[in-house]
Amino acid sequence: MLIRLTHTHDWKLLKHTRLAALLDAPSAFGVSYQSAAQSSDEQWQERADSTSGTTFWLALEDDRALGMIGAALSDQGRYNLIGMWVDASARGSGIASQLVDAVKTRALEQSHGRVFLDVAPDNRRAANFYLKQGFVFIDEWEPLASHPQILVQTMIWQASH
What we know:
By secondary structure, this protein is of the alpha+beta class. Helices cover 32% and strands 35% of the residues. The chain has a single domain, classed as Gcn5-related N-acetyltransferase (GNAT) (Aminopeptidase). A hairpin with a 2-residue loop joins strand 6 and strand 7. The longest helix has 15 residues. It is globular, with a radius of gyration of 15 Å.
């Protein structure tokens, strides 16, 4: 399994993977399938460019993406883990941990000692996974942008000193 940053030429693979994630778990992401599907090829190319604002990684096996994760700096200066997804055929294989480790490593390389994410607490599988990765819940809640009736809670990971 190869975990690597996306590049502009990966845009079709990123688009395919992101849309598959949105179809598989529509209420787990802050964007809807319909919204993402309407993005232009140029927007997908910009998203795939790891030197732009948001960074994405793909988990690849034989040129097939089995997972993805993203990271972006928020307006408040928080390093946020976003867009985590693993194909159903690869769940339980350790790919998810490798993807999260890629984000943690990048955060530390960029001098961010903390990584934030939002998760719906009733999404037990995801919440338990993040707890095992060293994240803890903090008392911050907000509605999920794509599904405002769902409240997500913030989790944080802090590097050990």
